[in-house]
User: Fold this.
Amino acid sequence: MRGLDAAQDDAELSASPVPGQASGREIIAVGGGKGGIGKSLVSANLGVHFASLGKRVVLLDADLGGANLHTCLGINAPARTLSDFISRKVESLEELVAKTSVPGLGLISGAFDFLGAANPKYTQKLRLLREITRLDVDYVIIDLGGGTGFNILDFFLIAHHGILTVVPEPTSIENAYRFIKAAYYRKLKTAELNYSLRPVVEEAMADRGSAGMRTPADLVRYVEEREPVGGAQLRAQLSQFPLELVVNQCRTKEEHQLGPAVSDACRKYFGIPMRFLGSIPYDDAVWQSVRRRRPVMVDRPEADASRCIRRIAVNLRSAERLERNGE
Amino acid sequence: MAAHGSQTLYELLEVSSGATFEEIEQSYQRIAAYLGAESLAVYSILDSDDAHSARAQLDEAYRTLSDPDRRAAYDRARKEDGNYPSMMVPASTGGTTSTANVHPRGRMSEEEHDKRLPVAGRSQARQPIRGPGARTGRMPLYGRDVGRSAKTTDLTGVERKKKPLYGRSVGRTDDEPRATDPKNRYGLDIEQRREPRYGRIEIERQRPVRDEEPPRREGRPAREEELGGSGREEEARRQAYADEPRRAVREEESRRYAQEGEPRRQAYEDEPRRAARGEESSRHASEGEPRRQAYEDEPRRQPHEEEPRRSAREEAAPPRRQSRADAEQRYDAPLPPIARSVLDEELDYVDEEDIDEVEVHAAPPVVVRAEPPRYEPPPIRQEMAVREPPPRMEPLPRAGRDREERPELVKTVSDVVEPRKRPTIPPSAHLSASAKSKKRVLSPSIALELTGEVEYGGSLLRRLRESTGASLDEVAEITKVGKRHLIAIETNDFAALPAAVYTRGFVAEYARVLGLDAVKVTKSFMGLYAKYRGVGG
Assistant:
């Protein structure tokens, strides 16, 4: 992983076709349930990387109320933010896109006011989500805030790639699993379910605090026992839950190996196949570049962290499942 | 996780039933990576017990499937019995509870089981070896550990009983130092014993040893008598067990066993199969098959158990049986293990010929403990039954707190003439005598003023208050509003009053004391307040 050089990455990138929707737009959400685990690092640098490949990329700072992605990118707080969109001062998201120092990379900054856009009404949020999916770009990268609030989960759920960032610490792992569960249950809540399935699912959701129902897989099993057909649909849905994993701040070999293990555990206990995209080593270049308010990919492209982020980008784009990266 | 109970070993290892050894090995390593003791990957998904048992299951699966012989046996057994469970918890695991202690041969017939005893013997012989050297074998460490404990459950009841049970290891704690004593309980050097334990060759090594062993003593009385074990024996065994080097390696597991072992052992005792154990063991003895068992028993029994036990038996063997049967019949219920062992101990010492000694040796508590539990309602309940209901709690001495109970505002003279009942302001001990004696009623002349739209200024409030005969002090005491505030209210000294929110509360309290509608009064008063201060209202 560390030995990989940028040229090789780029060669791979140009060789692999870009997956995506019919419009070519790809929405990537970066979450993780905990603060300070590198969500902004990953999203900003993925954005930089894709933009450097000539893609049109928009970074969306969806950390409503705590937006600071502009700082990571070295620009001043944009004059117009999501608040303006939510309060209908501007009609389209395109008007909000601020230019960054990287050509092709735009930023839609999150809201700075605490009570307005940080807690948008449901209809406002729906409008925002709809507009996000209509942005005319190649990549929309959504940098989520910490926690498992609905506003965060809903952004996560519209994405084609839900990247979960963790650091090798129990707190982060715990929050990540909680995030997965919350996201899945949120998806179940909002999913259009079969008429007969809905009550069973709601029954299961209500019962999910009990000891026997700790994971989404347990819930699906519960539903399957009562509604075999609908349960099978649920199981299929579960297996299509778009989850990808990045482990940040790895210091030791064991920590680099955490990714595959978490991925396996998630598949086994949650029934959700989680693709491990790669790990990012703990690298002084990262915090140094943050101090300089530049993305590490711009500031120190040769750093280990930058290489690993490139590798992650490659894995993200590759259609086939990543083989285990045991370092 | 719950689902594991129905999984086959192949499913546990996430391989197909035709998987090669390499595939099994690879899959095992992969799963062990996230189930590892230090693994973060299952943090918050599995609690430590679940993770431990999942690991144990995995190891058991790996141990079985990675060994061609065992795998073949497992496959055969699966074919023979469609419902053959991959993981099965024997009811009588003698102190071990988790599915770590299951074995694919768990459902074998007795004949089949006996046929396989050498294999079990091998694993049994392996068991005492724990400690630093345990990592040398082909299998991963906890694989071996679990395997050993698993195989103990595979033995006959006799062996299980005789082995120091995990359940008995109560009291061993984490902070005990790792055992470094080079001698184990067999008096052999660890290194010396470890050498032939691993690898397939050990079967061959074991057998000659067994053949050299003297046959089991035929004249031994039925095992059942010994099994109960006196308290001292228990202690001695526990001690012997605690001294073993391997204990240190398995501290965590033993803690769990300590919690769960006793009920297990109880279940085992109650198991009907136990009845047949005496003859079973004698059959084994005559066949000479579990000589290894005898070999194991021999040194361990020597210091602590054999002498007192034997002497007791020599003295009182026949009568003891008799009296024991009597005792059991009398209580007519399976005794809990402690009671049983106590009973045994008692019977050891009691000779029926000199009954007097019973009282000497069998201390009163022993008899009490041997009694079957009898329900007696706790005395406290009886007391409570005869006790009178507690006195009703006095309402707070704050006037007019309960809006619901507060009478409506006096509207008419007839209302006023009648003394008002004010249940919310009971005269309480700490009120002054005058406050208690006064009835706070409005005088008719003033009440007339209240029928229409009234502006409740301070002066009116004062007149109302004075009409009730209550002094400012008393009102202050009842309302807990400071006297200076009350004065400020009565003198309409808005500048002296605090912020609107407090003033509103004071006025409301004041109004309630006077039996007025707090809402009306505050609205009116705060109107004045707002006019003066320009805020509030």
